[in-house]
Design brief:
Elements: H1 6-29, H2 31-37, E1 40-44, E2 52-55, E3 63-67, H3 69-72, H4 78-93, H5 105-116, H6 128-137, H7 145-152, H8 156-159, H9 162-207, H10 210-248, H11 259-267, H12 272-279, H13 286-301, H14 311-320, H15 327-337, E4 340-351, E5 355-374, H16 381-394, E6 398-405, E7 413-414, H17 433-442, E8 448-453, E9 469-473, E10 484-487, H18 488-495
Parallel strand pairs: 1-3, 5-6, 5-8, 8-9, 9-10
Antiparallel strand pairs: 2-3, 4-5, 6-7
Helix pairs in contact: 1-2, 1-4, 2-4, 5-9, 5-12, 13-14, 16-18
Amino acid sequence: MTTTTKDQQEAIEKAEKAISLAFNKILIQQPAMLMFLNHADLKPIFKEGLTVRINTQSSIMNAFLEYNPDFINTIEDNSVLAYILGMEGLRIGLNHVTSRRCNPIESLKLSSDLIVSEDKYLLDTSKKEVRDLIEISIPHIMDFEDILKEKFNFNKSEDFYLEKLQAMFAKLIKEQKQKQKQESEEDSEEQDGQGDQSGDNKSNNKNGDKKETEDDDASSKQEKGNDAGEGEGEGDTEEQQSGDDGDGQGEDGEGELTGDAKALSDYFSSSEQASETATAEWGENEMFEEAVKETANRVASDSSTWGNLSPKLIQSILLAHTPRFDPRKILRRFAQSVRSTDTEQTRMKMNRRKGFDYPGKRKLSHSRVLFAIDSSGSMSDEDIEKGLKMLKGFLKHSEVSYCFWDGVCSDITKLNKRDKSVDLVGRGMTNPQSVIDKLNDERHKFDGIVYFTDAQFVWDEPVRWGKKIFCITVDEEPPSWVRHKMTRAQVLEVLGE
């Protein structure tokens, strides 16, 4: 247990008074925010770069509202502190703090900031200077809307939630970092080229005749004279500029943020280091999430707690606690459903009945999966390639084979793990039952079948195979009895494309 110094204890006491006053402001204006903040216990942490954050990983039921007393005590107007704490309450209510952290971490922090600060005036203040400060200091989705529309066809009414925004910004940040790295390498190559050229010039000068050397010396002297003259002129300009700057510069220096402006800038910073610190203790916590869900339901049913919260924001909070469709869960569920278990004898484990004199038994998990590819013409080679790439990632330990089918089913071929694509054959009518008939006729043993198809057919659930079929479709929905299914768009989402 770390001990605090006298100065630190005084800083904590001062910060706690400010936080208590900010909580009172929130209670009056936005009771719902305080209800979410009540799920977090205050915890002071003296750490450089830390402002305020939620920690959901140190406790099962309750979270911690971790704050840096030094940061809290730099805030001059308590309305600014109330605003910052209110943002943390929204992060709890919107389930941001229990989301899985994704890289680049800057994309997660920025997306969360944009969502919680969409309405800049949730906590109303009568002070014009505070309202102006919030207006210019806080990021807004409108600042990024143009580039998101251009790159990803962004639609705010459909895409304005954490997972979607994070995926978009992740791509933008990766592209930006890659571009910066490329430019840096190009600059380095240019500098190396200039160094080589300079070396060649020096060598040529040494081997030149005496006349050229004298001409160079004369030219050099003339240039020095010109430089000196220019230097004097430039010196006067710099003094004049310095004087101008001195007249217009504030006591804290030009361009340097101080007080509340710096506090807001530090809190909403989405730099890599700031984002890492702010989200370091975010993560999944089912019991905490259930407790917050109950609060969200109480808030939704009692309009007296809404304050200035818009019905749209209340709806967003409720949606955050509604299970969202996750294609990865479908893939994992299918991977588990097609897993078979065998046992084998081994000397590495003790026999439970007869001790070490006899070999023990261990379980072996394996699965055989068939990729049945619709070759009737609606599935492109690219669709098949992306589907294979996705499924091979989730079926790493499976033995995979493939076949083509249209009106009939082709021969079944084992898929090499290094194969990234297969050559389509067929392109005729559509009869998915032909695959089942071939397996039954030739007595093939598979634990599951993955159909790549446009689903433009009517098909009754096959006997014994209904629960073991996974359908990846282009646009149409597969038959209603299919339990494991995904569309092409969901495949691309899993692949991050």
